[in-house]
Every structure is written in C-alpha cells, then in structure tokens.
Amino acid sequence: MDWLNAVVQGTLLGGLYALFAAGLSLIFGVMRLVNIGHGDLIVLAAYLGLTVTTATGMHPLFALIVVVPTMAVIGYVLQRGLLNQTLGDDLLPPLLVTFGLSVILQNGLLEIYSADPQKLEAGALETASFAVGGLNLGVLPVLTFAVAVAVIWGLQWTFYHTALGRAFRAVSDNQDIAQLMGLNRRHIFGVAMALALGVTAIAGILLGIRTSFDPSIGGGRLIFGFEAVIIGGLGNLWGTLAGGVILGVAQTVGAKIDPGWQVLSGHIAFLIILAIRPNGLFPRISA
Amino acid sequence: MPEPILQIQALDAHYGDFQALYGVDMEVSEGEVLAIIGSNGAGKTTLMRSITGLLSNGPSQIKYRSEDISGLRADEVAMRGLAMVPEGRQLFPSLSVRENLMIGAQVGRKGPWTLDEVYKLFPILDERKDQQSTSLSGGQQQMVAIGRALMANPDLILFDEISLGLAPIIIKDIYDALPGIIGEGMSAIIVEQDISKALSVSSRVYCLQEGRVSLEGASDTVSREDISRAYFGIE
C-alpha cells in the first residue's frame, strides 16, 4: 500500500511538473525558442501572487485573475520587445539572452522581496485531504493535477481546433510562407509567449501554495520542466503531461527508498529514458 | 491601356554581397496575365520574393494600385490582395488539406473563392480534406497550393514554377484549369521555365536573364529567335 501511495502521490506531483513544462513545450513548439528564464518566470508569478494576496487579502487562487493576465502581458511585451530580435537561424542568441533574463529576474526579485523564503497562504486548502480506498489524497495535489490536465487539454484544443492554433502550427512549419498568408510571425510569437506565461502564472501560484519559495529556486523548476518536456517528446503536450508524471513518480518512489534520493532518482529516470529514447517517448517533432 | 495594378521601377535585389536583380522595370495591367520566363538563376524567384515582401526593397521600387508597397512586410502585402503559389508548393506539413486551404483565407478578403468553390474546382481535395497535406501526390499538393492562394481572394496572383517536378499529364490538367481561375477579373503573373506553356496562357511576356529584363513583348508576336536570344543570351 505504501508503494501504491508513493506512485499516486508522484502522479499528482507530476501534474505540477507538467504545468512547469507546458509553457516551455509550447514556445519551443511554435518558435524553437529554448527559454532558460522559464523557471525564474514561474518564481516571478509566485511573487506576483504574493504581492496581490498581501495587498488585497485575496485567496491565492483568486489572485490568478490578476496574475494570469499580468504574466500574459509581460510575455507579449517580452517577446515583441526582446526575444523576437534574437530569433533566427542561430540557436545561441536566444539561449544567451534568456540566460541573461534569468540572472536579471533572480537579482530583481532578490532586491525587491529579499532572500527570505515566502509562501502563499491558502488556508484550509493547504492541509485538506480525503480518503480513497485506503489512500489519503491531498485536495491541493488533486486540484493541481486536475488543473494540469485541463490546461493541457485546453492548449491541445487551441492548437488543433482554432484559427490561432492553425496559425501557430503554420508559423512553426514555415515562417516565410505563413507570412505570405497574412500572418505576422512577430505577433503570433508574441501571442504564443503570452499564452505560455499565462500557463506559467498558474504553475507559479500552485507552486507557491504547495511549498515555500525564494528568488533562487527558478533553476530547479526549469530543470524539472525541461526533463518533463524531453521525457514526453518535443512538441507533444500530452507527452509533456506523461513526462511530468514519470518524473514525479520516479521522485516519490526514490524518496520512498531513501528520502535523500528524491531528486536524484528523478534525474536518473530522465537519463535512462534519454539513453533509450533520445527523442523522448512520444515525439512529434523530429530533431 | 488599363490602369496598372503593379508597377516595378528600377528594382534591385541582393542576397548579401550577391546582386540578383539589376534595375528591373515591369508593369502588370488590371486583368492581365503576364508570363515571366528565364533560365535557372535568372532571378525569377527573387523577383517574386521582392514583390511579395519576403525580400526588403528600396523605396518606391514596387507600387501596387499606385501605393508604394516596397517597404511593407509580406503579411501586409498579402492583406492588400496579392497572393502567391510558391515554388515547390510549400504546404504546411502539420496542417490538414482543409486547414491549408483555410489558412489562405486568413487575410479575410471577401470574394468569389470559398472552401466549397475550391472543392468544386478540385474535387479530389474534398475527398482528401482531412489528410495531412504531405500524404498527397505532387499534383494534388499543387492543387492545394493553388487553392490556398485563391482562398485569399487576391486581385493579383503569382504562380511560381507551378509545373516544376510534375508529370506532363498533371501539368496539362493544371494549365487547363488556369483560365477558369484567372477568369474572374484577377490579374496574374506566371513564372515558368516551360516557355510554350507560359506563352499559351499569357498576353504579355518578360524574359529575365542574369537579373535583367532581356525581352518584353506580346506573347503571340514574339519570335522563337528573340526568345532564345533573350533566354540564353546568344547573339
């Protein structure tokens, strides 16, 4: 039963990792941009949540109403004002610029909020749980997983059933020809980044309710996100959810064997999958 | 002479240090079908890229309905009613046949061409509408590329080497369909290496040679000798 519990808790944790990863997966899929600053943007969203909740006394989940659009606007401006200029045939400039962005974000947050760990206060939601067949499930992890599934379903639906999704795929396929169809790729990229950071906002708030955070933890979240994307296969959003779950289960099962192995066993699972299936489990884009 | 829909004046084009076009002058009248011929590397595709805004141009080099479009982005040019069937078809591989056609309508221009009209023109596309565009034969892909450009309801449509890489029987089918396509008051530029095909559907012809216009004339009066001289540069 303990092992089953570890697997179930790991699956739920995987929902959070999938939320970390969904934004990364989306922007890589649309514009081949690897965003090194993604983890710090998640932390930025958590701090925005902190500011909103302390200023208004709102529940952190309601703060999403403010934080999601704010992050989306930041995403659009960031893409149009900065990241579009780095995109081209060379993969290096976007890596360097987003790395710089990561440094700036970390130090900016440190300057404004200090290095003290912070937490979003969600009251009873933090500890509420219910029993299912002998297992005790936390309401927050279950909610997180449900949100992850809903977000990924929503993104998938947007990609394959809307004009916007069609534009995303067309621009991703061939930028010049998409431009001939009247699509301004700079705008489309801006919208994609806005959507990605909207998802990042959700991830950041749920992270902040689940654990404490400080300005330095972005890098770790970025790694989990990357691993989930790579395990699932590039450009496949459901694969990203599967990747998050595999990573989460590997971590909780590892922690069950020895609490010190939690993070390590996640990395080992990632390494094994990368060795056996270099393109991930369900790749959509051939490398 | 009717108003020109497109006016090109002293157009130069460069790829880095390499100059591909030298002072090209060209005019397309409203409702006219113009052919551009020339050998490989003569600058035909470069000219198409300049007109559509995929290459940036100097000021006042290209005018569309007396508006200077030289400095516009490709999507802004497309919005004004200029569509292209690109060389090599270049469909979007991750879009279905239907989606490839729908994205052509993205510019939001009203006109005679709708999904149903394109299916009427090329019934095979209706049968294959949910397939990935890359699973079609070359000729069917060309139909999608033509349909995609028509969905924009353009006033001026550019066909870049539509017979390239297709079987002669397919080329014939597509050229047989052309009058029905261009008939609706549309102007067209047809870029071809196949000279007789180009002459048969056009009213005027330009020949490009090494980035310069080497011949300009009415399609039914230009002589074979003039063309081979202009085409190959043989004196």
Précis, in short:
The complex is a heterodimer of chains A (about 290) and B (about 240). The mean pLDDT of chain A is about 95.
Task: Please provide a written account of the structure.
- The complex is a heterodimer of chains A (287) and B (235).
- Chain A has 287 residues and is mainly alpha-helical.
- Chain A has helices at residues 2-31, 38-56, 60-86, 92-113, 139-161, 163-173, 175-180, 185-210, 218-232, 237-257, 262-276; strands at residues 129-132, 135-138.
- The radius of gyration of chain A is 19 Å and the shape is globular.
- The model of chain A has no long low-confidence stretch (mean pLDDT 94).
- In chain B, 34% of the residues lie in helices and 26% in strands.
- Chain B has helices at 44-52, 74-79, 97-104, 115-121, 123-127, 138-150, 168-182, 195-201, 224-232; strands at 4-15, 18-29, 33-37, 62-64, 67-68, 82-85, 156-160, 187-192, 204-209, 212-218.
- In chain B, α3 (97-104) packs parallel to α6 and α6 (138-150) runs parallel beside α7 (168-182).
- The two termini of chain B are 33 Å apart.
- At the A-B interface, α6 and α7 of A face α2 and α3 of B.
- Chain A: It is found in: Cell membrane.
Which key features would you list for this structure?
heterodimer, A: 287 residues, mainly alpha, two-stranded antiparallel sheet, B: 235 residues, alpha/beta, Rossmann fold, 9 helices, 10 strands, transmembrane transporter activity (chain A), transport (chain A)
**How many domains of chain B?**
1
Number of strands of chain A: 2
Mean pLDDT of chain A comes to: 94
Give, in spatial order, the strands making up the sheet with the most strands of chain A: 1-2
The rounded Rg of chain B comes to 17 Å
Taken as a percent bin, the fraction of beta residues of chain A is: under 5%
CATH fourth-tier homologous superfamily of chain B: P-loop containing nucleotide triphosphate hydrolases
Strand arrangement, largest sheet of chain B? 6-7-8-3-9-10
The helicity of chain B comes to 25-40%
The fraction of residues in strands of chain B falls at 25-35%
What structural class results from the helix and strand content of chain A?
A: mainly alpha
- The topology string of helices and strands of chain A comes to HHHHEEHHHHHHH
**Count of helical regions of chain A:** 11
Using the coordinates shown, work out and report the CATH topology of chain B.
Answer: Rossmann fold
Number-wise, the strands of chain B total: 10
N-to-C SSE string of chain B, H for helix and E for strand: EEEHEEHEHHHHEHEHEEH
Give the rounded overall mean pLDDT of chain B.
Answer: 91
Largest sheet of chain B: 6 strands, mixed
